[in-house]
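Narrative summary of target 7.
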Amino acid sequence: MYLYLGRAGNGYRWALWPGGEHVYLYERSSATRWRAKYLGKQSIWRLPRELRLAFLRAVARMFSDFFDGLARLAAAHSKARLFAEDYREELEALGLLEDDG
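Modeled conformation, tokenized:
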């Protein structure tokens, strides 16, 4: 799954998530002659809060059953439950949690 991260100077950045614990960061701009430049590998759990929220929304859209997607993420790393608890408000706003929790 590719996740657009926004503009960076006169280009843009994106992340590739193959389904595991890490995302792979890339940049494309006139400075790189419009070729994709690999910026490195980053753990999902060390991404800034805004990017983790964007990632959470993308996972919710990607899987028809969000909790199936969260289970896949939990299989990749044990912090998925903490991730869900940390973003409880956002999950409720997205309509992914029932009223009884």
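The first strand starts at residue 2 and ends at 8.
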